[in-house]
Design a protein that fits this description.
de novo design (two linked rop proteins), single chain, mainly alpha
Length: about 90
């Protein structure tokens, strides 16, 4: 018996969605990066797919912009945080 149960996939996805929503709503982040975060949110909301597929699709969308040289440091950190959370989602 562990003191704390590990987070389930949906909880991880909700955490990542909260991080991505903060990027989408940050007007200091370039539009193309906010758009990629919004696309990732769309993938995560697609309940017709399994949690791991939704996470993989979102990671793919975020990975493309994660190397953008115009991205503010705080946004890059949030993108990496969301990717790290989503990488732990397994079916």
């Amino acid at each position: 018996m562990s003191a704390q149960a590990p987070l389930d996939n949906e909880a991880k996805i909700r955490m990542a969605m909260a991080v991505l929503a903060s990027i989408v709503n940050d007007t200091g982040v370039p539009r193309n990066i906010r758009r990629a975060a919004a696309n990732a949110l769309t993938y995560l909301r697609d309940l017709s797919l399994s949690p791991a597929v939704r996470a993989a699709n979102a990671i793919s969308a975020l990975d493309e912009v994660s190397q953008d040289p115009n991205m503010p440091f705080h946004a890059r950190t949030k993108i990496w945080q969301a990717i790290s959370i989503l990488e732990t989602v397994r079916d």
